[in-house]
Amino acid sequence: MMLTPEVIARHASRSTPRYTSYPTAPHFHDGVDHETYLDWLAALPADASLSLYLHVPFCDTLCWFCGCHTKITRQYAPVAAYLDALVKEIEFIGNAAPKTAHVRHIHWGGGSPTILAPDDIRRLSGAIRSVFSVAADAEFAVEVDPRGIDDARIDALAESGLTRVSIGVQDFDPNVQAAINRMQSFEETRRVVDAFRARGVASLNIDAMYGLPGQREAQLAATLDDVLRLEPDRIALFGYAHVPWMKRHQSMIHEADLPQAVERYDQSAFAAQRLLSAGYAQIGIDHFALKHDSLATAARDNRLRRNFQGYTIDSADALLGLGASAIGRLPQGYVQNEAAIAKYERMIQAEGCAVTRGLALSEEDRVRALVIERLMCDLTFSARELSGAPSAIVSAVIAQAQDALANDRDGFLTPTPDGFMVTPEGRPFVRNIAAQFDSYLTTARGRHSQTV
Length: 452
Description:
Distance between the termini: 18 Å
Shape: globular
Number of helices: 14
Helix content: 25-40%
Oligomer: single chain
Radius of gyration: 21 Å
Largest sheet: 9 strands, mixed
Number of strands: 19
């Protein structure tokens, strides 16, 4: 079924959350604090499985497209001071969690974690392993900026047990790179990819983007061809989220240079077809993986999950966020650390913990979170999955699912015996479909990027 430009524009230009959590972060509040977090940690079962996210909020250059919480520095002293606080937080939270809990996943994000000096990479990894029980087969992933990373840092990451590397590319076209202030050659990127593989890092992810300023299908095609030459196991293909009201540096990008809704949709569809034809399986809305990859296996087995890093196989009982602005998820709800780096450091030095906001999940939140995650991951709504939840909440959600089917004018949904499936035409717009189950959107707290 071919969608008309009018239908594409109507759906693609809507603003909706990315649903890496539900409820989403704009709805967190200061009623969840340090004491709440410690109570929630203490309530974890003794044999809990844990996932750790460590945030390193520093870069040495500012990419204008970036939506991350980061700070630009050319001096190492601020990074070293931050690392002292981060290590102290790791020790404090590790001692507050059950001693017999075991870590299954570790993810370092940023910013650029590879801004850390080699000895500090080892120090940070050692701090984790000194206080947490890390499973022998735990996944350890790090986001890597290949621009300027040296062999000493690569050695330090490999020696620390790195199992998966996520390398930022975005686009290889020099004109697009100039428009986003990120100059990065293919040769430089390939050198880093080869270096990690030579050291035994088995899994490689590449991050690319569509919808960038000045980017057209020809540039995107050439970038994808270069990405495929690197033979990554996974590719994350994100649509550029232009949110200058949240990230003021994005005002450096002229809106007139950005592809509009229909062209963004065409870029997304073109890229998906190019990657599918190269043997990748499509995962959710923006990931692609070779069929042997654990993400593709999880998708086939309906075990795919979604968290603040995107699509994942992580099914840990709790995700502990460490570092400024980091978000954690526990059975009781979400917690988020102070975002301002200086204030985060002061709080850690004084108290060992820097949680300043969060949200305790209600029964309705849990039901809707399940519905939205399954839509984002499996592209399905199934009433059977809601069995055991309070009947009044289930009835309301099922009624919304029936309304979604009844109001579907564009062939995005097809009925199943206990719900519906999202069609291939509806897949790019699944955020809009999920938003129909979001009871918080009507509060108008927070603005979001466009759907496609």
